[in-house]
């Protein structure tokens, strides 16, 4: 998935907060945004998996992007950004727990600095704005060492019996 359209057209992105920072995702990979609800923890799940929730009949794995991007600041964790199954190759419905959602906006290619983030896994670039910088991230972080979709297939009671 390319962060910038090759033909120079603007891309719509969703801006959201994680801790003290502002981040964005290409709106094309997002299915919906929902209020954070009650999660069911999965025993022995990786640190970045918060749990699963039933989202209109779909078991949705909820991931903490703060863990993926080593963000230490706390926040209200009010919203979940649910990714489009057809756009994300995780093997199931996945959502990110974010602190808040700000806006959808157009980003022109000339507003994105990719030079400073070449080595950063999961970062497409830095979007320059009038008074701030927004980190453009990708939900396809290759260093996730688990098939997140399979975590949601486990029964919440699995392993509960001794």
Explain what the structure shows.
- With 162 residues, the chain is mostly beta strands.
- It has one domain (11-139): Beta Barrel (OB fold (Dihydrolipoamide Acetyltransferase, E2P)), CATH 2.40.50.
- Helix content is 5%, strand content 40%.
- The chain contains two helices and eleven strands; from the N terminus they run βββββαββββββα.
- It has helices spanning 65-68, 148-151, and strands spanning 11-18, 21-26, 30-35, 49-55, 58-63, 79-83, 93-98, 100-107, 112-113, 123-128, 133-137.
- The strands form two sheets. Strands 8-1-2-11-10-9 form a six-stranded mixed sheet, with no helix packed on it. The chain has a five-stranded mixed sheet with strand order 3-6-7-5-4.
- The radius of gyration is 16 Å and the shape is globular.
- Residues 10-148 form the CheW-like domain.
- Category from helices, strands and their pairing: mainly beta
Fraction of helical residues: under 10%
Provide the CATH topology. Answer: OB fold (Dihydrolipoamide Acetyltransferase, E2P)
Total E-strand runs: 11
Number of domains: 1
Tell the overall outline.
globular
Rg measurement, Å: 16 Å
CATH superfamily: CheA-289, Domain 4
Portion in strands: 35-45%
Main pleated sheet: 6 strands, mixed
Mean pLDDT: 81
Tell me the span between the first and last alpha carbons: 45 Å
Task: Give the second-level CATH assignment, the architecture.
Answer: Beta Barrel
Low-confidence stretches: 142-162
Count of alpha and pi helical runs = 2
Can you list the strand order of the major beta sheet? Answer: 8-1-2-11-10-9
The level 1 CATH classification is Mainly Beta
* Elements, N to C (H/E): EEEEEHEEEEEEH
């Amino acid at each position: 998935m390319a962060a910038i359209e090759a033909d120079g057209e603007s891309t719509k992105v969703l801006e959201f907060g994680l801790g003290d920072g502002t981040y964005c995702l290409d709106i094309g990979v997002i299915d919906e945004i929902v209020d954070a609800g009650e999660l069911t923890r999965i025993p022995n799940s990786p640190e970045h998996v918060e749990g699963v929730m039933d989202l209109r009949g779909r078991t949705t794995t909820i991931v903490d992007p703060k863990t993926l991007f080593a963000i230490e600041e706390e926040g209200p964790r009010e919203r979940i950004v649910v990714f489009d199954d057809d756009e994300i190759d995780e093997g199931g419905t996945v959502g990110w727990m974010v602190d808040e959602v700000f806006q959808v906006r157009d980003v022109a290619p000339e507003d994105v600095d990719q030079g400073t983030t070449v080595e950063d896994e999961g970062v497409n670039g830095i979007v320059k704005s009038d008074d701030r910088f927004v980190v453009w991230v990708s939900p396809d972080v290759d260093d996730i060492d688990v098939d997140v979709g399979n975590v949601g297939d486990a029964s919440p009671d699995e392993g509960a019996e001794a």
